[in-house]
Give the backbone structure.
Amino acid sequence: MCSARRLRFSYLAALAANVLATPAYAGAWMQAPNEALVILSSYAYQSNQRFDNSSHRVHQPNYTQVGLNPYVEYGLREDITIGANLFFIRAAQSGAPAQRGQSNFGIGDSEFFLRKKLWQKDGFALSLQPFIKLPSPQSSTSDTPKLGSSHPDLGASLSGGYGFSAFGQNHFIEITPQYRYRFGPQRNQLNAAATLGVHVTEKWMLMPQLFLTSRTSERANATFTQSSADDYDATRAQLSAVYDLRKDVSVQFGGFTDLNGRNAGRGQGILFALWKRL
């Protein structure tokens, strides 16, 4: 079976950026007591289409977003990990031929969490993670494009993972359902993430992932701003590779694309991340 330490490091590639500003999905494994992990991710996203509220593709002025996503988690006890997930974002959208484009830069939504181990045995792990999301400080301004929400969220995710060995290498699979209660006028959300980590060599791992977001009810006329303030459904696929530079340092790079949605952008992006264990 995979070692618990290796798994704790590997699953965190699931934290890759989501430019719809849904905070990253957590893993099933704990950080060791008094150990920390810092992941600094950067990404770029572009879209000139969106899915309307009936899931039809429609054109929109070109939208771009680049961001820096610092993430840190710390092992408070053997069964409790705490952490934070932050976003610094620059978003821009071109205007019609007779109009000027718009751009905005600042802090996006921020999320803080506590992860509690429920069960771990024979490669299987199960954890519960309550969290709180604080809205972007820019939400109180009239600047556009919007960088985040104007109201906080509360929620919890339940993560199940399994680490196994095959063909001489260690691998893992993880599934994370999540419920998100959204204060304000926004509808609550059901989220899910699925991750498969396959080590093709001792240092290289390939990681296909699928991210799903579903609002619990629909509005007849949903406002679209391409931010986490929206009511939307979204399906995103991502493929990335992770390379271990050292035991305590890894890099991740890859790409993602929007497959389907309602009241959501349809675009593609690339990402790069540096992981450091402390």
